[in-house]
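Async update (no meeting this week)

Hi team, since we skipped the sync, here's where things stand on the single-chain job. The sequence we agreed to prioritize is pasted below, unchanged from the tracker. I ran it this morning and attached the output directly underneath so nobody has to dig for it. Comments welcome in thread, and please keep replies under the output.
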Amino acid sequence: MSNAENLIDFLKPSNDSSESLYKQLSRSLNNAIQEGLLRPGDALIPERDLAASLKMSRITVRKAIDQLVEIGLLIKRQGAGTVVSENVDLVLHKNLSSLNSFTADMKKRGLESYSRVILREEGKASPKEALILNLNEGEFVHRLNRVRYLVNEPLLYEIAVIPASIISISSALDNSLYELLESKNMNPVTAKQNIHAIVADDNLADKLEVNPGSAILFVERRGKDANGRVVEYTQSYYRGDRYDYVVELG
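Output:
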C-alpha cells in the first residue's frame, strides 16, 4: 500500500460516530501530522482528490483544512497547494489584557471548540469559596468542572464556581458560561488573575492527555460584574505545550 493510500485509510471517517464529518477529518489530519504520517513540508493531497477518496464534499474537506490552517498546522501556498507547517506544534497565544471566555476566544479565532463536563453540582460553599465570593456560611454555589477542546484535543481543564443565586443546577448551559452570565447582566467585566507554573499529576495528565510531570499553566481568576460583585471563581489548568500568555506593554 502506498503512502497516499495509507493516509486515505487513516483519514476515513467512522460511520458509528455522531460527530460531523469535517470535525472527524480535522481531528484525523491533526493526528496524522502529530504521528508523522504527514511531515513538515509535505504537500497535502489536493482538496478535490481528498474529497473524492473520502467520499466527502469539497466544502467539508475545505472546512476541515481551514481549521488547521487557522491554528498554523497547515499552510496554503500559492501554486503549491496546502503543505504541513514546519512547526507542527499547536500553540495559542492568549492576551492577558483581554477578559473573555474560552468559547469566545476560539470563536474570535474562527475555530470550533467544545467541552466535556466532568462535574456539575450544587453544594454549600467551602470556607475558601465563601470568602472569595463574599458569601455567608451555608450559602450554595454551582460548581462546573470541564475539559475544553480544540480540534478534538484537550487544551485546558477548568473548575468554575458561581453563586447558586446567579446560576442554579437547572440553568441551561450549552457551552459558554460567560454567555449565560451575560444574559443575566452579570458577566465579568474586570478580573484579578494569578498565574504560575505547575507540573501535571496523574489525574490532571489523564484529563489533558499529557504525560505526568508535563508543564501546566495554572490560572486562578476572580471575576467581577459591572457592580463590583464577584460572580465567578475559576481555576484553569492550561497545557504548557499548547498555550502561552502575551502581555502588551506601553
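Quick observations from my side:
The two ends are 57 Å apart (CA to CA).
The mean pLDDT is 85.
Reply here if anything looks off.
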